[in-house]
Design goal:
Blueprint lengths: L2 H15 L2 H20 L8 H24 L3 H15 L8 H14 L8 H11 L6 H12 L1
Helix pairs in contact: 1-2, 2-3, 2-4, 3-4, 5-7, 6-7
Length: about 150
């Protein structure tokens, strides 16, 4: 089932359950999907990779907003953002642990014979493709830097 259909099914369930947080999160996913479809100029479905990027972007936005709210002492707003992020994350594949990401990064470094920071672009490109949707870009970047320096 496509992401759009999954979101619509969950929206119906959230409406019936009168779950405003879930409904708001799902509406934002639907809105972003619609924007992405219309901006590409085609009525075709988005690729799975594009959908994953879109979902990751939404989760990242929510977490960054929550962090800003926490810094400003607004725990109520931070909690709402984190709740939305959790709902959006349910559409993402299972996230890898930092140890699993580190193992993959080490394997990629040996695969491309990376010898230092000059090879970071090669490693990051491959790691981003292999770990798409399963790991946060910041974490991947941090681990690549650790092992290349």
């Amino acid at each position: 089932m496509s992401l759009e259909k999954q979101v619509m099914e969950k929206m119906k369930a959230a409406m019936k359950a009168k779950d405003s947080v879930a409904l708001g999160s799902l509406r934002s996913i639907k809105n972003e999907l619609l924007k992405a479809k219309t901006s590409s100029g085609s009525a075709e479905e988005l690729s799975e990779a594009d959908e994953l990027k879109l979902l990751q972007k939404l989760v990242k936005q929510r977490k960054e907003s929550a962090q800003v709210y926490q810094e400003q002492g607004r725990e109520d707003l931070a909690e709402a953002e984190l709740s939305e992020a959790k709902i959006i994350e349910t559409f993402l594949p299972e996230q890898l642990s930092e140890e699993e990401i580190e193992a993959k990064v080490k394997a990629i470094i040996t695969e491309v014979n990376a010898e230092g920071m000059k090879d970071m672009g090669k490693v990051m490109g491959l790691a981003s493709k292999q770990l798409a949707g399963k790991a946060d870009g910041k974490t991947i970047s941090k681990l690549v830097k650790q092992h290349l320096s």
